[in-house]
């Protein structure tokens, strides 16, 4: 093992071990487990409401639970995705959280980097396109109708938008995630 390989393994190894303590990648890439869309949707909404977790966190946690991935870093790894990445209204956590789950699911199936990267890009890209077709956008600000950089936007989110609008998007994203995992 050369110095660079050793340093990469030392830096990345503990993180990957913490993120996926379930089964290691299968040789030859096994099919992803079938996850019931209704069960995944119910789990994601349960984590999202009454208000503690963000959409990205709720979807990451529900997806990891369904895959048997346990880590102290989940759901916190998705916290920065909140409100379209740091409340900036950009890509919705209902897209970025599932992209993380898809990456983890494929990483458990595929040990070689290039095929893993190719599959992850394909499946996460297809998920993003499908989400955008359904909602007309992937932007949190457009989906929620809120500017979360303002106190008024954050208050509206917590008083009614999260329950009335965002929870329905979380539910739909979880169903799409279950279907995407079946093809991952």
Describe the structure.
By secondary structure, this protein is mainly α. Helix content is 65%, strand content 0%. It has helices at residues 3-19, 37-48, 55-67, 93-109, 113-135, 140-144, 151-183. The radius of gyration is 17 Å and the shape is globular. The two termini are 32 Å apart.
Shape: globular
Stretches with pLDDT under 50, minimum 5 residues = 1-27
How far is it from the N-terminal to the C-terminal residue, by CA? 32 Å
Query: What kind of assembly state do the chains in view correspond to?
Result: single chain
Supply the helix-strand structural class: mainly alpha
State the helix count.
7
Short note summarizing the structure:
Helices cover 65% and strands 0% of the residues. The protein is mainly α and 184 residues long.
Key attributes of the depicted protein:
single chain; disordered N terminus; mainly alpha; 184 residues
Write the layout of secondary structure elements.
Blueprint: H1 3-19, H2 37-48, H3 55-67, H4 93-109, H5 113-135, H6 140-144, H7 151-183
Helix pairs in contact: 2-3, 2-7, 3-4, 3-7, 4-5, 4-7, 5-7
């Amino acid at each position: 093992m050369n110095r660079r390989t050793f340093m990469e393994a030392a830096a990345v190894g503990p993180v990957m071990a913490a993120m996926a303590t379930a089964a290691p990648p299968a040789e030859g890439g096994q099919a992803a487990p079938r996850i019931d869309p209704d069960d995944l949707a119910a789990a994601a909404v349960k984590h999202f409401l009454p208000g503690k977790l963000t959409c990205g966190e709720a979807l990451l946690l529900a997806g990891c639970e369904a895959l048997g991935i346990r880590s102290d870093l989940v759901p916190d790894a998705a916290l920065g995705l909140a409100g379209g990445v740091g409340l900036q209204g950009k890509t919705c956590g209902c897209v970025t959280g599932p992209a993380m789950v898809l990456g983890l699911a494929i990483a458990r199936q595929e040990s070689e980097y290039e095929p893993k990267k190719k599959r992850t890009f394909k499946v996460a890209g297809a998920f993003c396109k499908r989400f955008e077709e359904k909602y007309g956008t992937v932007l949190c600000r457009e989906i929620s109708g809120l500017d979360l950089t303002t106190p008024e936007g954050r208050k509206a989110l917590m008083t009614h938008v999260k329950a009335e609008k965002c929870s329905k998007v979380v539910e739909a994203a979880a169903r799409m995630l279950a279907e995407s995992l079946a093809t991952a």
